[in-house]
Amino acid sequence: MMKQTLIAFALSAAAVAPAMADQALAQSKNCMACHAVDKKLVGPSFKDVAAKYAGQKDAVDKLAAKVIKGGSGVWGPVPMPANAQVNDADAKKLVTWILTQK
User: Fold this and answer.
1) Which residues contact 75 (CB under 8 A, 6 or more apart)?
2) Model-wide pTM > 0.85
3) Alpha-carbon torsion 51, 54, 56, 62, what sign?
4) What DSSP designation does 28 have?
5) pLDDT band with cut points at 50, 70 and 90 for residue 21
C-alpha cells in the first residue's frame, strides 16, 4: 500500500514539475515583471493570452517571435518591449506553457 502511495505521489509530482519549471523560466526571464498567470498587470494575464490564441496552429511561433522582438497594438496602447535575452528555444518553451493556462 505504501509503495502504491509513493508511486501515485511521484506521478503527480512529475505532472506538476514541468508546469513549475516553465513558471520558473518565466520568472527568470523577467516575464512576471509585466505579466501574471491569472490577472492583468502591465500586460495581459497568461490565461487571457491562452484564451485569445486557443486553437491557432501558428500561435507558438507567432508569440515566440513577439516575446523576442516585442510588439504593440494587440492588447492596448502599452507596447511589449523586445526581450533579446530570451533565445528562440526558451521563447517557444515559455509560449507553450503560457498557452496551457486555463
Assistant:
1) 43, 44
2) no
3) positive
4) H
5) low
Strand, helix or coil at 35?
Answer: coil
Q: DSSP code of 31?
A: G
CB neighbourhood size of 3 (10 A):
7
Question: 38-69, pLDDT tens digit by residue?
Answer: 999 999 999 999 999 999 999 999 999 999 99
Contact 24, 96 (CB under 8 A): no
Instruction: Report yes or no: 80 and 72 within 8 Å, Cβ to Cβ.
Output: yes
Helix (H, G, I), strand (E, B) or coil at 94: helix
The amino acid sitting at 24 is A
C-alpha distances in Å from residue 14, one per residue of 3, 21, 30, 46, 71: 16, 11, 25, 22, 35
The C-alpha cell that represents 38 in the structure block: 491569472
